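Customer ticket, subject: "Can you confirm the structure for Excinuclease cho?"

Message body: Hello, I'm evaluating your service for our small team and ran a test protein. I'd like someone to confirm that this is what the system normally returns, since I don't have a reference to compare against.
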Amino acid sequence: MEDTEEETVLDAFTSVHAAKRHLEQLIKNYQLCPKLCGLEKTNSVCFSFQLGRCLGACNEEEGALSYNKRVHEALTLFKNATWPYPGSIAIKEQHLKRTSWLLFNQWRYLGTFDNEQDLNAFTGNLHAVYWDRDTYRILKQFLKEERPQDEVVVL
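Agent reply: Thanks for trying us out. I re-ran your input and got the following:
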């Protein structure tokens, strides 16, 4: 199984409105520029600069290094959890006489396998599988709560 580069997924939102609300909160908390964040379309300085809420990155009054540092701080808090394994994991589920292996990597569900041979032979492409908010949240919670009937195997 081939390891892949780690992708940074910040988050997924249930709607465009929810994403904009979150971005507006980051802009307010970190004094970011709404124009540079794509929320204002203007040929001059942003409205927040006129109100003293933006430090002037949109008119070069604030330097790029200072502004980008605050953007980085805001996005660091916003980022999803880092994948805690060096590669893929398989979660072994047993129910009655049936055993299944659920394969995950970088918070993505890659498939279900009925035996270890098929699991180990999997050569699928992680980048062909989209990151899914629900999978991320369910898997993150599952990995916090160890269940005795399930086994997590690092591949």
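A couple of notes from the result: The chain has a mean pLDDT of 86. The longest strand covers residues 98-105. Feel free to reply with more questions.
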